[in-house]
Design brief:
With 336 residues, this protein is an alpha/beta fold. It has 14 helices and 10 strands. The protein folds into 2 domains: 43-122 and 220-335, Periplasmic binding protein-like II (D-Maltodextrin-Binding Protein, domain 2, 3-Layer(aba) Sandwich); 125-216, Periplasmic binding protein-like II (D-Maltodextrin-Binding Protein, domain 2, 3-Layer(aba) Sandwich), CATH 3.40.190.10. A 5-stranded mixed sheet has the order 7-6-8-5-9, sandwiched between helices.
Amino acid sequence: MTRRSFLKPSSLSMLVIFTMAWLAGLLARAESQEKGLGPVSRAKIRIAVSAPSLSYLPIHVAVQKGFFAKRGLEIEMIQMAAGLSAPALLNQAVDYTTIPSGVATASARGAPLKVISFASVKLQHLLISRPEIAVVTDLAGKRIGAGGFGNLPSYEVRVLIDKYRLGPNTTIVPVNSSTDRLIATQRGTIDAGIVSAPLDLKAEQLGLRRLLHMGTILPIPQAGLATTEEKLKKRRGEVIELLKATIEGLDYTWTQRDGVIDIIARWMSLDSSQAGKAYDSVRETFSKNGIPSEEQAKAYISMLTATAGLGGEVSPQAIFDFSLAAQAAKEMAEKK
């Protein structure tokens, strides 16, 4: 006699209910992911970065501390020239960039790109000088090294000349990189130059003077995150998780001095003392939640208009979209 086993009615009902609930959840997740709103599955994220720079330190911190990884985001940093970041985004060679200037310029001219957050909201550039230059006004009629015409250091020097009334005889000398400007100042080819932190520490070792922190007179955001409008529409969940990890990196950078100094030392090949000085120099330049103030956003647009040769008035909406950064910050605050 063949033995058959049957589920009791109550067991059968439970199985049907479980199966229907599982299918409903599966369909809901599929719909949510299609809209870009659901939890992020494991994804590899390619971020274009400049050469190692403290301007995007909180993002580097977030990578080192695993803030992206715990949200299912595997980060690959790809170093490239600033001018290549916008084309790389448009061609989907990268997903995001920490170099917003080229993206902002392209978006002001109609490209479907947006700057979505800023890690640093004040310049981290410093004015170094020959030891005999005691104050900024001593640079009247002297030679100041900056980049070529139209770039940020050149803009900074023009603002410096106007603000301190250094006069028409003060010369802007085009010198490509921060390192080259450091060397040229040491050799006396120029009297002063704009360098990025932490090269000011090297300048002091060489007997040069750190004359001015440019962020004290120019509250211009410097580095952050930018991406395509398509990413903002179709992968909103991913973007929000990325921004949450960035906010964690910002918070850690503000509050965990010893941990950040250790990261800076390893990243920049500095000893602990130098890394501490570098941290103290740039700490106040960082945002708290990735969103610049109205004044900082306006300063950025003014810089962009002057350096990129943009005609007419540039609308903030044309280049910025901080809505997801605001949402990420709100969700992070609600969890505290």
